[in-house]
Amino acid sequence: MILKSTFEANQEIPVLFTCMDQNINPPLFFEDIPEGTKSLILVLEDTDATPTPWIHWLLFNIPPTVTQVNQNEIPEGATEGLANNKSFGYEGPCPKYFSGTHHYLFSLVALNTVLDIPKESDKTVVFEKMQGHILATAQLVGLCTAD
After folding, report:
1. Domain residue spans in the chain?
2. Which residue of 13, 54, 108, 113 lies most exposed, with the fewest beta carbons within 10 A?
3. Is 0.85 topped by the overall pTM?
4. Cross-strand pairs, 4
């Protein structure tokens, strides 16, 4: 499985997709979704946040027919779970709150099931319920550097 965007892996995420501009999600493209996939999960986390990674976006039960997430949209049929601010929706990188370069990990997970969980679920619940159902994973790392 492959996950791509309009920016290259391990390169700066365009400012448009950060809190310093429009703070909207970037377009994402999914390739080679495995046969038997019943749903997809998409997570964006700052792996350099402390003390634990910060969840900036969580989508689950994305239909397996979805091959892209359009800029500033969520796919039809997907459920937005809770991000770390106990809020729904995309929360882009925000370099005004840190110094140096942070790594933002977009993770796509193909499951052989649809998760039967409330929309208010956070990463802990989603990750617990997906165990034993993972068919494939793909990742894309983008960078965001503070001045």
Report:
1. 2-145
2. 113
3. yes
4. 29
